[in-house]
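Incident log, structure service

09:12 report received: a user says their structure output differs between two submissions of the same chain.
09:20 pulled the input from the user's history:
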Amino acid sequence: MTIFKRKTLSVAIALTCAAVTAGAIASSHREAPNITRAPAVDSTDFYAFNSYEEGRDGYVTFIANYIPLQDAYGGPNYFAMDPNAHYAIHIDSDGDAVEDVSFVFNFTNMLAADNEGIALPIGPEGDQKMVKVPLKNIGGISADDSSAANFSEMYSLTMVSGDMQSGERTTLTPSMGDMFKKPLDYIGNKTFTSEAEYARYAESFIYSFAIPGCDDMARVFVGQRKDPFVVNLGKTFDLVNYVPVEGDSAPGAGDGEGFPGGITQSENNDDLLDKNVTSLSVEVPAACVTGDGNGVIGSWTTASLPQATILNPDATFAKPSVTGGAMTQVSRLGSPLVNELVIGIGDKDTFSSAHPSDDAQFADYVTHPSLPELLNILFKDAVNTTLGTDIETLAPTNFPRTDLVTAFLTGFPGVNQQATVTPSEMLRLNTGIPATPAESQSAFGVAGDDLAGFPNGRRPGDDVVDIALRVVMGRLCHPIPVAGEDTDLELCAPEDASVGTVPFTDGAPVDASMIDSSFPYLRTPIAGSE
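09:34 re-ran on a clean worker, output below:
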């Protein structure tokens, strides 16, 4: 593919920030009314990035996280995937907003002893009965011995070439063994001994597999992980119950010389600090998913359920209900946070069930986003009082927001615009941009002069919250540093964004040091018991 000059690349990707992050100040947890009733199919975050593990040049990693806000101690049943659901990662290689390749996960839950569950002999000799145990394990578990497990999850992995309805389906199998398995959640250290031992146990569930027509092997892991997203979640949704501007002269300076009363950086501001999540991670050779396109791919994750469910009045573990009808999409996530804070509450479930090719129906939410005006209502008077100013509005005034439309729906030629341009919401990644090693990554991605970061795809260590807050309030209406030079992007004028240069933040820091530097990248989950 064509390689563009660094400055041109920087400018174009920076433009993409505008719309990709237009509504983002929290992660995709419980983002639509209907999905709150089905947490097992609620997608929380989606990542797509060029793999930065040493020796993995030319690979792309996709991570789809599900089941939000997991408390590590959430026994005795913990957090199993839904065996009735289809979980999928979709990739559009040519820009028609229709998937060209999908990886589909289907789960099977099993009890030990032929799905009856482990039973123990209870009572004295002569009056003894075999009674099933109520727990998911009856002893210690390790990478070498899982015989004490009373519950297990397996999954099939299917590749669909073409659209999901009519595409060719290929069953993928692990290079060793006959099925893919998911590790038990991190119940605690009496079960798994230590964090290191759980990590060794979970690592044994990383599988290599072949993709037909590809020369190199792919990898997959499904299991519980520490939630990598950081956000001041509770206060953010309480009408942004903090002053969302850096209170120090620089993040972490600790000098209180920033905005008066502004929030400062602390892990205590991260409401997900003690939460886990269930991760579906796939690493594939980039050449296997770029197709006949120009090397830029769009991707997203979905979860679907059968249209009809009839509860079994005599429910059993094996048959709690009967399902039927067509599979129906109930969850969708590409670019972060769109459904929470861009889409109106009455259309959130519609967005969850919509296909990217139908996204024109949501255009008004991009051309006239409501979040900046909400922030204006909440903070304008306080800002004017604190600073002794008379700012008429904090919200950008360039309507329609054509800068957001261009970046959000079409991409930019030569950078993240695909071979065919179809306005749609996807997480776009240029597979031709080399990955940045973990130690050199900037949490601000492109804005931090790191072209391999958000919004060119998304890595777990990218601080999309702070980037988003600044962009949505008009940062791109002012000159921004591109390859060391202040550059006017000519999307809008400084007078269109009165607070466009303010360092907005939620005070919850994140960077690549908080993420592992090898597949599956997300860290070992928090133990349910020390």
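09:41 both user submissions now match this output. Likely a transient worker issue. Closing.
09:42 reviewer note: Residues 6-163+172-514 form one domain. The mean pLDDT is 91.
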